[in-house]
């Protein structure tokens, strides 16, 4: 037989247990939160690595990266003519538009963009969320180093393939290929017996 109010009593028991239990609230402004070591906060720029390839700006789904550059001629000793290189004039990220997907960091072939664990960059005016290359460069000091190599981990496929290729003598490569099967003799196809 079901007792009236049994469900209500169970719900109130859970509420009472939670009410007298330990609180997990952090006093945020007074106590700094403990973030994971590789947490994603804001995007930092290593300006010296940027070659102005524009991949980050083209791949950004929010179009929040603005880049300007100019070409500069560099005289190389012994070269017949001077070489041209791009010089970064402006690199801005509008964090009021950014959705922190990380596509720009993934597509950067020269490791110019990194995740920084900084997250306190709120502004009173939305126009102040447009950060220039100098401000983005200041966050590089907070970027954690990459994780250490795990000696017990499995090596990458590319490394094992390169090591295998380097240790295999040139004549041994043909010996390791599987033999080719001779073709089947031509004849009528086998028939299956009807049940």
Tell me what the structure shows.
This protein has 195 residues and is an alpha+beta fold. The chain has helices spanning 6-20, 55-59, 103-107, 133-138, 157-167, 172-176, and strands at 42-45, 65-74, 83-94, 113-116, 130-131. Strand 2 and strand 3 form a beta hairpin. The termini are far apart. The model has no long low-confidence stretch (mean pLDDT 86). NDH-1 is composed of 14 different subunits. Subunits NuoA, H, J, K, L, M, N constitute the membrane sector of the complex. Keywords: 4Fe-4S, Cell membrane, Iron, Iron-sulfur, Membrane, Metal-binding, NAD, Quinone, Repeat, Translocase, Ubiquinone. Its cofactor is [4Fe-4S] cluster.
Please state roughly what percent of the residues sit in beta strands, choosing from under 5%, 5-15%, 15-25%, 25-35%, 35-45% or over 45%. 15-25%
Main sheet characteristics: 3 strands, antiparallel
Query: What's the overall average pLDDT, rounded?
Result: 86
CATH class of the domain at 30-146: Alpha Beta
Report Rg.
31 Å
CATH topology group of the domain at 30-146? Alpha-Beta Plaits
How much helicity do the residues have? 10-25%
**Helix-strand pattern:** HEHEEHEEHHH
Instruction: Give me the secondary-structure category.
Output: alpha+beta
Number of helices: 6
Q: Given the C-alpha coordinates, what overall shape results?
A: flat
In the CATH classification, which architecture of the domain at 30-146 applies? 2-Layer Sandwich
- What strand line-up does the widest sheet have? 2-3-5
Low-confidence segments, ≥5 residues, pLDDT <50? none
**End-to-end distance, in Å?**
62 Å
DSSP summary, beta strand count:
5
InterPro entries: 4Fe4S_Fe-S-bd, 4Fe4S_Fe_S_CS, NADH_quinone_OxRdtase_chainI
Family: Belongs to the complex I 23 kDa subunit family.
Organism: Micromonospora pisi
Binding site for [4Fe-4S] cluster 1: 50, 53, 56, 108
């Amino acid at each position: 037989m079901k007792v009236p109010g049994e469900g209500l009593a169970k719900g109130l028991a859970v509420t009472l247990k939670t009410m007298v239990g330990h609180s997990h609230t952090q006093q945020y402004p007074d106590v700094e939160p403990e973030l994971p070591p590789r947490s994603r906060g804001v995007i930092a720029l290593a300006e010296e690595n940027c070659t102005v390839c524009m991949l980050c700006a083209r791949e950004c789904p929010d179009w929040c990266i603005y880049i300007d550059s100019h070409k500069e001629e560099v005289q190389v000793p012994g070269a017949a003519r001077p070489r041209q290189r791009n010089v970064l004039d402006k690199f801005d990220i509008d964090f009021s538009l950014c959705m922190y997907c990380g596509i720009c960091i993934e597509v950067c072939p020269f490791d110019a963009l990194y995740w920084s664990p900084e997250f306190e960059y709120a502004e009173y005016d939305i126009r102040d969320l447009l950060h220039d290359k100098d401000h983005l460069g200041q966050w590089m000091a907070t970027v954690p180093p990459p994780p250490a190599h795990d000696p017990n981990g499995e090596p990458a496929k590319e490394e094992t393939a390169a090591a295998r290729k380097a240790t295999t003598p040139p004549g041994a490569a043909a010996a390791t290929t599987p033999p080719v099967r001779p073709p089947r003799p031509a004849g009528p196809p086998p028939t299956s017996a009807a049940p």
